[in-house]
Structures are given as structure tokens and as C-alpha cells.
Amino acid sequence: MTAPAERIVIENCAVATVDADGTEYPAGHLVVAGDRIESVGPGPAPAGLEGVVRRVDGTGHLLTPGLVNTHHHFYQWITRGLATDHNLFDWLVALYPTWARIDEAMTHAAAQGSLAMMARGGVTTAMDHHYVFPRGTGDLSGSIIRAAAGMGVRFTLARGSMDRGESDGGLPPDFAVETLDDALAATEETIDKHHDASFGAMTRIAVAPCSPFSVSTELLRQGAELARRKGVRLHTHGSETVEEEQFCRELFGMGPTDYFESTGWLGEDVWMAHCVHMADSDIAAFARTRTGVAHCPSSNARLAAGIARVPDMLAAGVPVGLGVDGTASNESGELHTELRNALLINRLGAHREAALTARQALRLGTYGGARVLGRAGEIGSLEAGKLADLVLWRMDTLAHASIADPVAALVLGAAAPVTLSLVNGRPVVEDGRLVTADEDAIARATREQARRLARIAGLTG
Ligand SMILES: [Zn+2]
């Protein structure tokens, strides 16, 4: 006989479930049993529940699904604040030589920093698109997965790769790329070693060649075949800048979306970062194939990439989630502030005051992200039977207390403090502090590794 599930009761809080109907309760409750949500509804929790190990008074709080980040590059945590006034291609060219010097100690510390910053701000599911694998520098993928497991955050490692160096017409220097065969073999090994396909998995792997201008056509093609043979998802960067569009037209005689389609890279098992420069026909192709998009508004602004057509994508039925993107192009590394930035950036322009609403922004950062990661049946909304990944946001302090609508307060207001976040029913944040890791120790380790990298890369003496 299995032991009865331990229950956590959260009540007296506003609840935004982000279910299909957008159900909200001004004062409601949620019951966690083990790693699942058992019930959610208006008013106090049902009386007479057994096995209640914790009762949380959520007065003055908003309860939402945990935030889901759909695009990131953790290693960039230790190269923040560089090349601060560059467009994408110039920024990449400036940073590749430094990135090519990373090692396992650096990727581990940087992953911890990236994860800690997001988890503290309500992220319960993270992803890392890691595509820099210098030879002989240790088990970089393992170091990143270890960091996520230690933090207690649900995680997808998108095993990236680059095989189109400068001598093959690509953007990265030759010393920063792998061979086609090495990239495919290492990706397959990572899937075999770490991918967990089960319901509630804490670690998933995706196949993730970096971008059209840093990988060969063959790597895209064979990467897609590998992913489908293994039953894992596919991720890459797409249609980020006008320069990328020009690159594709010159080299392949077509725009990025057609190029992706020709290599097997449109489909409901694919999600792509950015998708800024999309014609109506590109959006229609994404909608038809259910290809997902990771919208990264701050990074797009930082690199002057442009404004993704998120309202048009949503209207067409394209799955859209939010992404921080790497912190070399979004130094804050927070996802909860991306809710606000997504709303603001998509409203830029005349008569766009309702282009994206506060509730749509919250949906992008929760359910939308879950859908893009292929996990909408497990996470992304507060519904009975789903995994207990949730955030209790404090709304009764100076920053938010005078705003009556808690969802408007969360999205439009200052970054809200997290009183409690749970992943699989287990606390990750309590009273604004991580309980699964020592933030101060991580801050020291990331500073040390950032200095080490700067020294090795010759940025400092
Ligand atoms: Zn990126």
C-alpha cells in the first residue's frame, strides 16, 4: 500500500488559472497532493482534507501557474555587459572568440546563475540552448543538467551545435565549431543519457542546431531526422534579423521559413526563437504546421532586431511562448519582467493599445510556454491533475497594493516578489529567497568564473 499523498493547501488568494477559459477567482484556493494539483476553485479549500502538512494563507497574493522560459543561453551569464551597442551579427562576431574559451566550471556556474535569477522570479520550467562546445573542455551538457537538478527546476536542455565556420561561409570562427559527425553523435549521446520522456519529467533533451548562418544544411536535415527517430523536440533560432534573411536569400535562394521547411524544420515538434521578420505567408506556414515560437522581446530590443508580430501569430493560431534569451543580450535574465516587455513592445505603433493584453501576456509566459515545449498536458495552467508548478506573488506591498486587478498589477507593475514557488509540489522559493541554492555563493562563483573567462580570453590582463 502506498502512503497517502501529503497535501499543501493555499487559500485566501486571487487565482489566475490560465486554463482554456481564463478562469480567475478573486479569492480562491488550491490544494496540492504529492506532486499534482488536486483541486482549484473559489473560496476556501474543502473542509476535512487529510494529510495536510502545510497551510498557506495567501491573503494579499496572486496565485498563477509557474512561468515557463522557452529560450536561453545559460553560459552567457558570465559574458554580460559586453558589446553593448551592437546588432546581432556584430555582437556575435565580437563575442564568439570569448565564448570559444568556456569550460565545464564556467558552464556550471553560469547555469546556476541563470537558473537562480529566473527561479527567484517565478520560473518553474527552464530551458538552455547550449551550442558552444570547445574541444576537451569537459562534460558541458552534464554540468548544466546538474545545475538545473540541484535547483529543483524543471528543465529542457536543447543540445545545440554549430558546424558552419567562416571558411564555409558561416558567421562563427572555424575554431568555435564542431564537425557535422561530432555534433550529431554528441547530441544523440546526450539524448540517450539524459532524456526522460515520462509524464512529469524533470529533464528533457531537444536537438538544437544554432541558426541558419552557423550550421550546415546537412546538420539541419540530419538533426531533424535524429530528433524524430528519438522522439524529442527540435529547437533553433529563426528569422531574427534582416541580415539573416539576406544571408538565406544569398546562400539558399529563399527566405528562412522556406529554408526551414525544405530541411524538415517546420512541425508541431519544433519551436524557434525570435521569428521577428515574418511575412504573412511565413506566419501562415507556422500556423499550418503548428510550429512554435519563443518570443524574446528584451533581446530583440537590445540587438535592434525588430518587433515580432506576436498578435498576428496568436490570431493565426501559432503557439507562442516567452524567452529571456541569453543574458549577453538581456542582462537582467528575468522572465517575469518579460511579461511586461512583451506587452509594451507589441503595443509600439499607433492604434496598438490592445495589441496584447495583460492576460495574453500572462498566458504567453505560462501556458504558451508549456505548449511550445510540448508540455501543455502537464504544466502551464492551474488545473486538477496537472503538476504542482505554481507561484504565489505578493501583491500587498508598496509596489502593487493600490492596484485592484492582480493580473494587471503583475504584468504592468514592478517585478512582484515571490512569496512561494513550487515545482512538483516542492518549494523552490520562500519569501523571495531560493531555498534550493545559496544565492550569495552563486553570485561569488559566477563573478569568479566571469573574471577567469575574461582573463583566459584576453579581455583583461
Ligand atoms: Zn538565442
Automatic annotation (TrEMBL):
Domain Amidohydrolase-related: 63-397
Keywords on record: Hydrolase, Metal-binding, Zinc
Record's keyword annotation contains Membrane: no
InterPro entries: Amidohydro-rel, Metal-dep_hydrolase_composite, Metal_Hydrolase, MTA/SAH_deaminase
Keyword Zinc: yes
One Pfam assignment: Amidohydro_1
GO molecular function list: deaminase activity; hydrolase activity, acting on carbon-nitrogen (but not peptide) bonds, in cyclic amidines; metal ion binding
NCBIfam families xref list: PRK08203.1
PANTHER family named in the record: AMIDOHYDROLASE-RELATED DOMAIN-CONTAINING PROTEIN (PTHR43794:SF11), AMINOHYDROLASE SSNA-RELATED (PTHR43794)
Name of the protein: Cytosine/adenosine deaminase
Annotated source species: Actinacidiphila glaucinigra
